[in-house]
C-alpha cells in the first residue's frame, strides 16, 4: 500500500458522556458504509458495537471496539468507546489509536463532567476533534422550543465547549511560558502562536455537525449553504459565513448584513441560521407529528430535493416512521458525519507528524566514546522519522503500538483465511487459555506488518542505550494471524500497512496490557497512555471451594491481561485483591471471572476502602511553635535497645497545596529522584524526554507556587511581617529535604537536622555524642539548594575528620534512618494506613562504642536494624502526640434529577454523609443539576439506592476528587463541663465516626481493637432462660 493509499485512511473515535448517543450514531454509520453487516431499519435499535450480553442488558458501552468502514474512496476505522466514568481507561486506548475524535454532546443535557474528561483526553493525545450536537429533535418534541430559543441553546453549547478547549490551550500556554522563564529551550514559541489563532469549533469551518442519531439525519452548514447558493444566487463561501452568528438576510437588498442592516425591514429579525436552517426543520417536524400539521410541507420537501421514498413508508400510520423516512433521505446522517471526517480529520501521515511529540517525545543524549551509542541513536532517530512521516513502504522499520489486549473465545475466530484457506485456530491449551484467545488491539505507525513476522515487544521502561541491562523489558515474538476488526467479527488479512488499526493474534504470552512492537531493538517505546482516574474500589476475592484456588489464580491472570484498567495484587494478609474503577466495572470483572476466565464460584468481600492518616493543625500554627521547633523542646525521643543511639523526632503539617503538588507529581518525582532528570544540579543520565519544558524546573515552580498560595491565603489572618516569616520558614525547610515517603515519592517529607543543632546536653554517661547530619538529596535534585547552603554543609562535612570511625558509622546509619521513615509513613499509628501531608524533623545522635563491648556481638541484633525500628516508633509516637486525624477519599458527584424527586435525592445524599456544593436548574428543562462530595466509603450501592428512591429518574456520576481529613478526634473523651453535659462521662460516650472507621479498618487487618465486649452486663445477666 503506497503513500496515496495512506492518504485515503482516516482513524476516528467517538467520545462523549454516557447516554449521549455514541453507539446509536455508530449504528447509522455502519448501516450506510459497513458493507451490509447491519440493515438500515435496525440502525439505532440493534446497537451493533455493544455485542457483549452485559452491554445489551445494561444499555451502556463497556469496551472500545473498532470497525472498518468504506466511504467513497476512503477507508475509515471507527472506534466506539464507553461514556461511563468506570470505563474511562477504554477511552484512553481508543484515543491513542485514533487521529481524530467525534465529540458528541446532547443538545438538551449539554456539557457534562465526562465531556470535560474526553475533551482533555483528545487534547492530551493531540487528536483533531469534531463537535457533534446530538438529539436536536428533543428540542422540538420534548422542550417545545421555538427555532430562536433552540439557536441560543446550541450557540451556548458550542461556546461552552470552545471555552473548555481554550482553557486547555491557555494552560499549555502558561506552562510553556513558565518553562521559557525557567530557561528551557526557546523552540516552544513557534507553537504558541499557531495554537492561539482562533477558537476550535466553528460551524462555518465545517467541524460542527447538528444531528439526530435516533431518526438518522444530520447536517453541516455546508449542505444548506450549497442548496441556498443556487436558490439565492449567492456564493457558497459568503453563505457559510452568514449561516452562523449574528448575520441577517435583508430581503429588500438581497444581502447578508449585521443587525443594524435589518432596521426598517423587519420588526423581529432572525439570524440566518434560524431563518434558513432551523425553521424548515421545525416545519417538517410539525407537519409530520402534529395532527393538524400541514402534510403538504412533506410533499414539498420530497419534490424539491427529488427524494425517492417508498409509498408504503409515507402511508405508514405511525407519524414517526414517516418523519424518519423523509428526514433520513433529505439529510442522511452518514454522509454528513463522514464527509466532515474526511474534510476535517487529517490522514495518518499528517496526523502523526503533529502527534509525534506526544507519541515519541524527543530525547537528549550523552554519547559514549565507544561509538556504539551513536549507531543506536542514529537508528532510533531514523525510526522516529519514519513514524513521523507514517512511512508505509515495505523497507521502512515496522513500528506498532498495542493499546490493550482483549479476549475472544476461540470459537469466534474465523476458520478461513483471506483466500478461503483453512486457518488453524484451535485452542493451544497453554497458560490456562483453553477457551479464550487474546488479541492485541494495535495501530501500525510505520512499515508493513505480516502474519508470521518476527518483532520485538518493548515495554514502556525499555531503553535501547542500556543494552544488556534491558533484557527483561524486551522480548522477541512471532506474529500470528492479522485481522481487520468488524465489531464482533474479524476479517483475516495477510498484511497491513502504516495507518491501519488491526487485531494481532499470537502476542497473548508476551504483552500484559500495552506495549510497543518494533522490527528493530533500537527503537524508543511509545509514551504511556494517560488515564483519567485510578482504580480505587478494592475487594478481596476467594473461591467458595478452596480446591478451586488454582483456577482462580489462572482466571485472575487472564482478567488482568484482558482488562486494561483492572489491578490484581496480593495484600499483606495474603488475600487476592481486585482493584476496579467503580461499582459497574467491578461487577463486570466479577462476572467475567465467574463465567469466562476462572469459571468457579467466588466469595467477594465488602470493599477495602483506603484511608490516610495526618495530624490536626493549620499552617500559621507552625509560627507559634517555630521557637520550640528550633530549640527542640517539643519532641518525641526514642533510644535504641543497646542505648547507643537516641532519635528525636518533631512532626508538623505540610500546607495543603504543597501536599497536593507532591501527591500529583509522584511519577515526575520518581524520575527525578532516581536520576532520570538530565544534567541538572550534579545529576546526570543518558537520556531525558523533552516534554513540555524541563520537568525539574516546572516541578520546582509548582512547589514554590504552592507555598506562595498558602502564604497568600494566610495573609488575611496574619500581619505582613508574620506572613513573610512563615514564607522564609518554609523556604528554609525546602532546602533541607532528605527524603520523601512512602516509597520515596509520597506526600511526606523528612528534614535533616538544623545546622545549628548541637550535641545532646543530657548525655547520661557524659560521653561525647555525634549528630548524624543527613544529606539534602531531594532538595539538591529539585534545585532548592543555593550556593550559601552548599558551603555551610561543606564546612560541616570537613569538621568530621577529627575522629574517623564514629563518623563512618554515622554515615552508614543514614540509610537506616531513611528506611525507618519510609516504614513509618507507609503504616501510620491509627490503623496502619499511609501518612499524608506531614513533615518530620529528625535529630539522630550516636554514641561511640565503648572498648569493652567493641568486639562482642550485640545481644539486641544488628545496630542498623535497631536504628530503623527506633525511627519508625518515634515517628508514629510523634503523630499520636499531635492530635492524629483520619483522612478519607472523596468522590465528586454530579447528579441530574427532575424537580419532583429533589427531596428524595437529598435524603439519599444525607444518609451518605454527602456535602452539597451547588444546585442549579438546567435552563429550558425541569431537570436540576446538583454537585456534591460523597465519601468513597459511603459510595457503594449509592447509584442503586438513588435509582430506587427516585424511581429511576435521577442519575449520578462519581469521579475521584481529593482527600479530606475528618475533623473528629478518634480518641475523643469528654473533659470540659460542656462536653460532659453533651456527651456524658467517658464510660458512656458512643464511638464517633472517626473511631468507627478506624476500628473497622483495624478489625479488617487483624489489629487489636479497644472496645467493650460486654456492653450491658445487667441486661445480659437477666435474660430469660428457655429450658
From TrEMBL:
Gene Ontology CC terms, in alphabetical order: cytosol; ribonucleoprotein complex
The UniProt record lists the keyword DNA repair: no
Listed SUPFAM superfamilies: EF-G C-terminal domain-like, P-loop containing nucleoside triphosphate hydrolases, Ribosomal protein S5 domain 2-like, Translation proteins
InterPro entries: EF-G-like_DII, EFG_II, EFG_III/V, EFG_V-like, EFL1, P-loop_NTPase, Ribosomal_Su5_D2-typ_SF, Ribsml_uS5_D2-typ_fold_subgr
Superkingdom per UniProt: Eukaryota
Pfam families, per database record: EF-G_D2, EFG_C, EFG_III, EFL1, GTP_EFTU
Keyword annotations from UniProtKB, A to Z: Elongation factor, GTP-binding, Hydrolase, Nucleotide-binding, Protein biosynthesis, Ribosome biogenesis
Residues of the Tr-type G domain: 7-236
GO BP, one annotated term: cytosolic ribosome assembly
Record-level Gene Ontology MF annotations: GTP binding; GTPase activity; ribosome binding; translation elongation factor activity
Protein name per its UniProtKB record: Elongation factor-like 1
Organism: Cocos nucifera (Coconut palm)
